[in-house]
């Protein structure tokens, strides 16, 4: 559940993550500089064509679904104001930029993405040592499902005992769990020689 | 050191876990979720520095492509959508909330609520509104009014953050930053 990376191997999976991210930045910069509806629409055609060529177009379109109604609201608002063109351009840009970004996400493993991120964070190493950053990321990835499961179990336990819906008590219990778990994790890290 | 790292990582995971609570969409592409509640809690419970770092860690993981933002979106989706300003304002909101918490000597519900309102709503909207204006092609005034739809929900979240933080300060005295002593332990 945790990543959007496509399990079906494509040729784009073999490209270095840094190259893909660089191309994405370049594409987005050009996209936002393009004037007019026609050129912006062409900008959207590129990620669509790539997704089709990679055979990922079904999943790719599914990931764009959350934008559907956002786009509809923006179009309706601009239609109501009598300025349809900026509305169409805003929506096309949004879909194209997100579409291109989703393609990178779908064809890049989380570990590769993390390697690029740690490389980019190197200038910060006097402030945030890379090993510590990597550990923090790993801990967060590990504890995300743990805390989600805890929230799920707590609301089930509540539902079994009460007819009312659970409110802020759930937030309290999950936050308390996070605080307590953090103490245990810190103790465990210290017991294993600390983070250095 | 280990403790602060573990707290940062666990609260980053907490923001994401709170984001999985079902949400309501109300307009202009910014879904209402418990996510901003997580950001407020980072500030009120961990304090300014650790709170902001926890939010930054959460954002980093979202930008790596994890679908942990409201509505199962990742960081790229947030950057491309009208909620970009809210996304970028998260760490500042947590920092300001945590900083305001140091203004009062004890963790009280009222002081925490005020910190959450000024940090998690006023500060956050200073970033969020220009984002809506830029991405949806609206004027700042229009963006301001469209964002006002979310204020009632956010005020409720600030109240929840205040209740949770004071309860935590009672349950685990000393673990809540800015809490010298919980209000109830004064007697």
What's the number of extended β-strand segments of chain B? Answer: 2
Radius of gyration of chain B: 16 Å
Which value, in Å, is the CA radius of gyration of chain A?
22 Å
The H/E string of chain B reads HEEHHHHHHH
Number of DSSP E strands of chain A: 0
> Briefly, what CATH class of chain B?
Mainly Alpha
Task: Give the N-to-C terminal Cα separation of chain A.
Answer: 32 Å
How many angstroms does the end-to-end distance of chain B come to?
33 Å
Given helix and strand content, the structural type of chain B is: mainly alpha
Strand content of chain A: under 5%
Q: Biggest sheet of chain B: strands side by side, in what order?
A: 1-2
Query: Spans of chain A of 5+ residues with little confidence (pLDDT < 50)?
Result: none
Name the shape of chain B in a single word: globular
Strand content of chain B: under 5%
Task: Supply the CATH architecture of chain B.
Answer: Orthogonal Bundle
User: How large is the count of helical segments of chain B?
Assistant: 8
Q: Please estimate the helix content of chain B.
A: 55-70%
Count of discrete structural domains of chain B? 1
Transmembrane segments (chain A): 21-51, 63-80, 87-107, 127-147
GO cellular component, one term (chain A): plasma membrane
Membrane topology (chain A): Multi-pass membrane protein
Keywords (chain A): Membrane, Transmembrane, Transmembrane helix
